[in-house]
# Entry
Amino acid sequence: MSTPRPRADAGTLPSSAGQRAFSGTQRFEIRRIIGEGGMGVVYEALDRERGMPVAIKTLRHLDAQGLFRFKTEFRSRADLEHRNLVRLGELHKEAGSWFFTMELVDGQPFLDWVTREAVVHHDDPTMMTPTSVPVVESTQEVPLVPPGQGFDEGRLRAALRQLVHGLDALHRAGKIHRDLKPSNVLVTPKGRVVILDFGLIADLAPRDVSDPTVVGTAGYMAPEQAMASQGGAAADWYSVGVMIYEALTGRLPIDGQPLEILMRKQRELPPAPETIAAVPADLSSLCMALLAIDPAARPTAAEILRRLAASPAAIEEAQGAFVGRGAELATLTGALEDSRRGGNRVLCLEGESGIGKSALVRYFVDHVARLRSDTLVLAGRCHERENVPFKGLDGVVDAAARWMARHGDEAALPPAPEVAALAELFPVLLRVPAIVRRTAALPPSPLELRARAFRGLRQLLAGLGSRRTLVITIDDVQWADADSMALLRELLQPPAMPHLLLILTRREGEPLDLPGTVDTVPLPPLDVEEAAALIELVAPERLAETASLVAGSGGHPMFLRELLRHLAPPRSARLHDALWARISRMDSGARRMLEVVAVAGRPLPQWLITDTLNLDARTTAKLLSELRAASLVRTRGTRAADPVEPYHDRVRDAVVAHVPPPRRARYHARLASLLIASGLVDKDPLAVVNHLE
# Structure
């Protein structure tokens, strides 16, 4: 008979004494270390499956807090694609190691690029310090370039414009970087600026603001960050001001030891760059405006671009604007009230891509969290580009761990055997001191471990929901793995189901097999009144066109925005015209790829697109990223066999209508030839028939 396994010691993750040096996997071959920081190591690797180089980030030390931040770094950026933000790939847990893949950027640090002579520059290490603990000292060696003589003005202005665009895209997505500095911004030989290292990324409007930790790099931190405030977008703009100051003068605006720097920033302004060296007056003025002690006095993205002589029109309208959906909000509110009275409700919002499912849920739970202090919201997301255990509920458990680490509630914990098993499956829970203290041996049987962990999560959620209203959301549940669905079914199994409101979202047509009553809430197109509200918010000058805009978009909010962006004369309310006007301005490589995906008539594996267009895997990844960012295609992962399809049938129709028949025929012939040569025709004859007609 097997003996129980011991529980991991406090402070370590179960099944691990810390992250081992990463040696790669069957798919990823490690080539070299390209970067190391206090929290992670970045490697260059070969993705053997796709035949392309990638960057891989791993944890330096595998502890619960580090793992939580690591997953947050990936998940906060996974859906945000912009040419000035490093492209993320997949999140993995394999053989005890956590890692995620990224685009491999061949570039120089920001200051090296904008200075005529290489700068030997050492950033202070990033720190994470509770406010009650003094900030540790760190290296402050910053050899200077000759003041006013070391920077290339043309390069600096061009790089700053791109830096502003990338940072603004991050802010419009509701995120702040919090650790912007020259080593976290690379510039490629072709001049593309790429923002890296999102290890301290945070929400602009967090639901829980009780975290007392001071984070960042002292020389680049805004004054308000030193006061245990993560700050808003203005904190990132302060960091940009520091980078401009360094480029112009060769020195930090305020130097010294980290604690001294943070204290001086509360009351001191540095001398203006133009008083130190002969530098352009407008750049000196912009720099000082960004270094204002008061966050409200710092310029916004649009103001910065105006000062840099860039068109502020490049800043898009806020994507987070929410209007309408009164009937659906009433349904969600009614379900919440039922839950408050002790009932259990499970709702599933269904709708096509881009219809606004995620935006509706986000608006609802943010509204609830602001107005109802007795409500606990645990929000998760099931992402198709994650290869981690229980990915459908992993984010929910992360949110629970975050809340319990800050607020306690030891009474909500299950018995020790269940807690130990649950922490083995979800090691982030070990960031909760009460869970670390509740030790127990683990069962030798994997089946018993799983059963205990499932019971433990049900009991934990029941405990959390016993003294407050518990709301759990899981976005894109159609991507959930089998283990996640098994755990979800266990949680919802009567009579032991915790008191909660569970809100799921999924695309139409995906099967959902859950016990009990699941109320489906279909999300239809916007009606005329709701569409008018959106038009008034985004383009009030076009309110008179409401009827034609609704007809042209079909009330689909994404396509309504598309029509509102279509301003080129003659302005048209035909969606095909608006879509094609944008597509025709894209790079020819991206346009050809979109044509192949649209002409195919069914999802294509990525390798087939690569071979059809005679591309290499790295170019394919780049072009797919551009098309995803433009909401023109959707993918189901980054692997060679993962499928790609148009984002919506109306995108497909608009593209196919503009592909000349001879080119369409060439695409079909090439696709058919490759499918036959691959042997896939034997498994799926219909995959070829369409291309032979």
In short: DSSP finds 25 helices and 21 strands in the chain. The longest helix spans residues 153-172. The domain at 28-102 is CATH 3.30.200.20 (Phosphorylase Kinase; domain 1). The longest strand covers residues 28-36.
